Amino acid sequence: MKLLTPAFILYIISGITFTISSLMGYENVIFVSKPMIASSIIFHYINEVKYKVNYWHLLFLFSYFLSGVLNLFEDNQTLVYVLSFNMLSYSILLSFIVKKMFSINYRSIDNVNLLYIILTIIFLITLAYLSLGLIFTKENQMYFYFVLYAIILTSLVISSTVLYTLKHSNAIVYLLLAAFCYLICDLFYIIYYYYYDFIFFRLLSILSSVLSYYFVVNYFLKSNETIEVVE
Fold first, then answer.
1. Which distant-in-sequence residues (6+ apart) come within 8 Å of 23 by Cβ?
2. 43 in a domain, yes or no?
């Protein structure tokens, strides 16, 4: 893959611009730079696959793009749409993983990997429970959406971890990195906006969001090269 394509350079510039402008509070620049992150990486993907796109990949990127644009408004009226588009994106990735996991021989799991998987599951479930329990209450109108969102995201990260444990490949490494970026992004977004507005938490959320585009697109590209994804 040729990294320094015009679209990829635009992705880097818009990502840096968005990060700095978000921390500095330049709202006009934020509203321009954030949509450019997703749109430039989408064009980068289309260019790299020579316009032979996987439409599920494109649907994922477009859904995640809409989520990011709507999230610029940062109000409760658009939050349900942000959560819905994110859940759609995560579900698409999750479906890829499930298809891949059906083709793996689970007898190859040793005790060390099994312990790693169990500890990861316990940690992520505990993290999701504490995030919901400490920050949101059942009286919150959005509580059901938050619970469903947490279930889908946790399932995505767990399944990515299990898949990586069972089958090492460059594509799955990118998938795992993307999944953890989503987790870090959403976790620190919630902490910053609903619990404690420490600027470092916002920085972690923003950087994870920007990097996630790179990792997931590389997962798609590597999957195409190695036939990782069952079309």
1. 199, 202, 203, 206
2. no
Distance CA 52, CA 124 (A): 36
Q: Is residue 21 part of a domain?
A: no
Structural domain boundaries enclosing 198: 70-226
The total of structural domains in the chain comes to 1
Report H helices in the chain: 6-24, 27-48, 55-70, 76-101, 111-135, 143-166, 170-194, 199-226
Answer whether residue 9 is part of any domain: no
As a whole number of Å, the end-to-end CA separation of the chain is 21
Q: How far apart are CA 63 and CA 99, in angstroms?
A: 21
Q: Are 61 and 45 in contact (CB under 8 A)?
A: yes
Which tokens go with 199?
């600027």
Residue 107 carries which DSSP code?
G
70-115: per-residue pLDDT in tens?
A: 988 877 778 889 999 999 999 999 999 988 887 766 556 677 777 8
Q: Is residue 159 part of a domain?
A: yes
- Minimal CA–CA distance to 124: which of 147, 154, 97, 153? 154
In the structure encoding, which two tokens stand for residue 158, read together?
A: 């767990």
pTM over 0.85: yes
Cβ proximity of 117 and 165 under 8 Å: yes
Residue 137 banded pLDDT, cuts 50, 70, 90:
low
Residue type for 68, please?
G
